[in-house]
Amino acid sequence: MSQTITDIERVDEFSGEDSSSGSIERFLTFTSDNITFGVSTNNVIEIITSYKIRPLPMVPDYIRGIINLRGQVVPVIDIRLRMGRPLLEYTDSTCIIILSIGETSVGITVDFVAQVLDIDREDICPIPVSNRQELSSSMIHLKDGSVVLFLDCEQLIRQY
Questions:
Q1: Taking the alpha carbons of 156, 23, 34, 146 in that order, is the dihedral positive or negative?
Q2: CA 46 to the chain's CA centroid
Q3: Following CA atoms 58, 62, 68, 72 in sequence, which dihedral angle do they give, to the nearest 10 degrees?
Q4: pLDDT by residue (tens digit) across 3-58?
């Protein structure tokens, strides 16, 4: 089963929110290790489930392997392992988000995808110093009290 970002955006169009303002950007939110992350929908190609990841020898453990996505070989990074957390068995809600980062396509495994949010860039602030700063440099506090860390896609692929 595969779900494209256009399917998600179509659902979100009925939220009644106006994202036509120049300072509003859409972010796909997902959870990994009980941490909510956001990634710009500009980087998201699609969301897929139930794909066989083929392991590769002699790569860092957070690179789970590769998938063949319609003839394109895409490396898959487990965000949980990339943060130095232990590997958990994948469940029915585990999915792979395919990202376009520059000229590179990469998949990231996440615990589950939450929603698409329209976020005013002016509300985004730098993240306090933490051990996750290498993957995220900014964050936002939502009205419901939750926090979203924004994934730094360039940094994600910089070291692999």
A1: positive
A2: 10
A3: -90
A4: 444 444 433 433 334 445 568 999 999 999 899 999 999 999 999 988 899 999 99
- All residues at 6 or more sequence positions from 105 whose CB lies less than 8 Å from its CB, including other chains: 45, 69, 72, 74, 98, 99
Amino acid at 20: S
| CATH 2.40.110.10, domain 2-158, yes or no | no
Q: Is 146 left (phi over 0), alpha (psi -120 to 50) or beta?
A: beta
- Measured between alpha carbons, how far is 107 from 69 in angstroms, rounded to an integer? 10
- Largest Cα–Cα separation, the chain: 49
CB 28 within 8 A of CB 5: yes
For the record, the structure tokens of 67 come out as 């998938």
The amino acid present at 111, given as its one-letter code, is D
Convert the pLDDT of each residue in 81-107 to its tens digit.
988 889 888 889 999 999 999 899 999
